[in-house]
Structure formats: C-alpha cells, structure tokens
Amino acid sequence: MQHSARPIISFDNVGKKFRRKEALRRVSVELSPGQIIGVIGTNGSGKSTLLKLIAGLLQPSEGQVLVNGKRVTRLTARDVAFLPDQDVFYEEFDLGRTVDFYANVYEDFDVQKAYELLHVFGLEPRQHARRLSKGNRGRFKIVLALARRAPLIVMDEPLSGLDPLVRESIIHSIIANLDLEKQTLVLSTHEVDEVEPLLDRVLLISNGELRGSETVEQIHAEYATGLVGWMKQKLAGK
Ligand SMILES: Nc1ncnc2c1ncn2[C@@H]1O[C@H](COP(=O)(O)OP(=O)(O)OP(=O)(O)O)[C@@H](O)[C@H]1O
User: At what angle do helices 111-120 and 95-105 cross, to 10 degrees?
Assistant: First the structure.
C-alpha cells in the first residue's frame, strides 16, 4: 500500500561507527507508512545496525534518524515494537507470565491478542520459556512483537531458526496480524525468495552502504527479475 503521508522513517546522511569499524555510511532514505519493508544484504553488511537505529537502541555517529518526524532517542523504543535477534524473555517464566510481564512494560501491549497469537502459533501459555525449541522461541518472539499496537514494528531476522516448511505459514500469520492502515513493518532477512511476495519495498545494504531502495513492483517492471536477481545485479555494480 502506498501513502503520500509524511515518511514514518527518515535517514539523513546517517553513519554509525563502532570504535573504528564503520558499520553504516552516508545512508539517506525516506520510508512511507503502511508498508512492509525488507532490509536485505550479505552477512555483516549493516542490517541489524540499521534496524537498531530505527528502534532507538543505537544512536547514529553522524546524520540523523527520524521516526514520525521526531529524532530517535532511547525513548523511541517505547513506540517501536522491536524483535531482536537474541531472545528477550526470562527463561524461568512460562509464556503466560511473560505475556503479563510485557503488558506491564508496554502500554500498547494487547494481552488478548497475545493469547490469540499464542494459539495461532501453536504455543501453550503454561510452557516454560527454557523448554522452548529454537523454532518455538522464534515464534514466541514474533507473538510478543505483533501483540503491540505500535505504529512501527521492526523485526531483525524473524525467520531465522524456523524450518523452511513452516516459514510460509508464519509469514502469512505475520501479514494477517498487521494493521497496515495503522502500522508499518520493517524486517531484515536472508530468506529473500520467501519474503518477496510479502514486501512492498526493499532496501539493499552492502558493506555499510545503501545500494538500492525500490518497490518490489519497480524491480519486477524495470529489472525483469525477482529480488535475488536484482540483488545480484546491484552487487555486481550493474
Ligand atoms: N556492537 C558492535 N561492536 C563492534 N562492531 C559491531 C557491533 N555491532 C555490529 N558491528 C559490526 O558492524 C558491522 C555490521 O553488523 P550488523 O550486525 O549490522 O550486520 P548484519 O547485516 O545484520 O549481519 P548478519 O546478516 O550477519 O546478521 C559488522 O562488521 C559487525 O561486526
């Protein structure tokens, strides 16, 4: 869905350094609300760094990042539902108690939706987090992010650890539980082929630089290829 509204996310000449390591360089881009945006690129290219800057978990070394027209600070984390690549729950809690804990921390957390999502994803509220398989940990993190009525949901590798047979149904559940009239989803992934049908726009990052920002429609029309083909052409400098 395309909106002419003001951008929900803008990067203006953003750089991020970790000591001497330049993880991102001169990134400028504006993203419209109401879309599903994929961030793709090879390992270590800067995808997680970009997502953490949006979520207010990192501050830029140069330039500025705006969310909803406001400069991102640590407080932005309250308005952005972030699914990190690490686990984010207490191992000794069961899932129901974790849901209650989240409801206490985040004002926008919808407990009823969380329980519905647990059911959709085949998870039991009485299960203990420490006994979850890797795949179920991945599902539970998705539940915790989607249960927030946040205008911006940011997911770092939501499909990692999930086997190829269930990825498609998880992708469909993610779409079914988003409200694109009110929400925007940004996700990073290596499963480019699998997420292609769900994306409106793609950002391609290589070696800390933004090498492309196009709608999936433009890519199909102008490059006559799918995302993986486009990514290869771009990275080969064509
Ligand atoms: N806290 C940190 N301290 C030092 N270097 C870091 C830190 N976080 C990231 N980096 C470096 O910044 C670069 C970009 O890392 P980032 O995690 O953003 O890449 P990525 O595209 O998400 O990688 P992957 O696909 O492997 O998850 C890498 O070289 C990484 O080693």
Answer: 150
